[in-house]
Amino acid sequence: MKLWGGRFSGQTEKLLERFNNSLSFDSRLWREDLKGSIAHAKMLTSCGILTPNEGEKLVLALEEIATELNEGLLEFDYALEDIHTQIEVWLIEKLGDLGKKLHTARSRNDQVATDLRLYLKGSLKNLAHLVEDLIATLALLAKEHSTTVLPGYTHLQRAQPIVYGHQLLAYAEMFFRDLDRLQETYIRTDVLPLGAGALAGVTYPLDQAYTQKLLGFGALCQNSLDAVSDRDFVLDYLYTCSVIMLHLSRLAEELVIYSSLEFGFIELADGYSTGSSIMPQKKNPDVPELIRGKTGRVCGDLQAMLMTLKGLPLSYNKDLQEDKEAVFDAGDNTTLCLEIITPLLKTMKVNQDRMLKAAQSGFLNATDLADALVQKGVPFREAHRMVGEIVKLGLKNNQEITEIPLVKLQAISPLVDKAMLESLDLVSCVNRRITLGATAVTEVRKQTEEINLRLNEAMKFWQKEGSL
Description:
By secondary structure, the chain is mostly helical. The chain folds into three domains: 5-104, Fumarase/aspartase (N-terminal domain) (Fumarase C, Chain B, domain 1), CATH 1.10.275.10; 109-151 and 163-199 and 217-358 and 447-464, Fumarase/aspartase (Central domain) (Fumarase C, Chain A, domain 2); 366-424, Fumarase/aspartase (C-terminal domain) (Ribonucleotide Reductase Protein R1, domain 1). The chain is 62% helix and 4% strand. The strands form three sheets. The protein has a two-stranded antiparallel sheet with strand order 1-2. A two-stranded parallel sheet has the order 3-4. α6 (108-144) runs antiparallel to α19 (441-464), α10 (232-258) packs parallel to α12 and α11 (286-309) runs antiparallel to α12. The longest helix has 37 residues, at 108-144.
């Protein structure tokens, strides 16, 4: 069955039918298509375009199709063109000519845009809950490791001592920005295009506000041409997924590095690791590695959609059929990565002694010595030079700053004294950093409490959208 065959006399080439077909992937939209169709039938009935009897029969038949699909009693006919055709075929099988009336005042153009927006609203809410779980886990681990000292890095070189809780909270901040993006994307997706028809609107006296209410949309599209051709909300979705994956990939990279024998800062649980087919000793961090790999794939989905849209004239074009595979691939992979990263973090072992030992070498307290000299009245640039000479001396003799004899230190700067050296222990260095968002233990614990408060506020938006 074709929804458009009346104008044609020749047979469609089999290759074109395969090339044109989208049911193999847009069958995933059956719930949304049925939900939109039920709302459309109710609206047509309320406007007098369908009789109450017709409207009731259509709604009951659509609900039956939903039940049968949920119970596995219906099979898709992949020779059909798309999900809209498939559902109409089932409807006509149940109701005969009455089933053909449902498409009154509706085009597949505004129908598929509605389906996709409904689908993405549900996906965005699910992603938000997964991100919220991840942030809560990071906050919990940050509190647990608010006193766990390790090296902080710049250029992947040991820089200054921090606590591991501080580092985990940095990722929490990244994922908070992702929550913001999810909300913003939801708001722009939450706009109903039904009523736009193919491109110019329809001639029937529709009650679009009623359809909006039935489907739970926050707004109506204001221009029929834009309603059927707009895929900015798809770009927003793909961009948001891409940034979430970028943040996951950064975290994953550190998990790979930190779990290596060279670092040994963490150990991933056996349940989230794999082995080698040839080397019996191996324990591989496949989960974070796959997250890194899938990031490129999701970012590629965004790039593909950008290129699809870049030259399209108004209004609907068949190119837009390409949006769904990108959306499904990006959403599936982002969801899967979020689902697995949280339990992986909860079950990993943090080797605190190894972290502390790493922080005890590499002159991580050099800046603190310079700051101590500044407090004695030395200009910072001069203090920086003096401490640089002290580090050079330590490198030459394989000694950390506190291991260098005081007399040699005083030869470089007479202001260095025993009390100054005693203040260079790593815990003191950490706890002196008390600016907003810094690594002091008190600040990290404060940040953890703030994170939980902010998380509770962020969750209210999605609780408000509980009908999805």
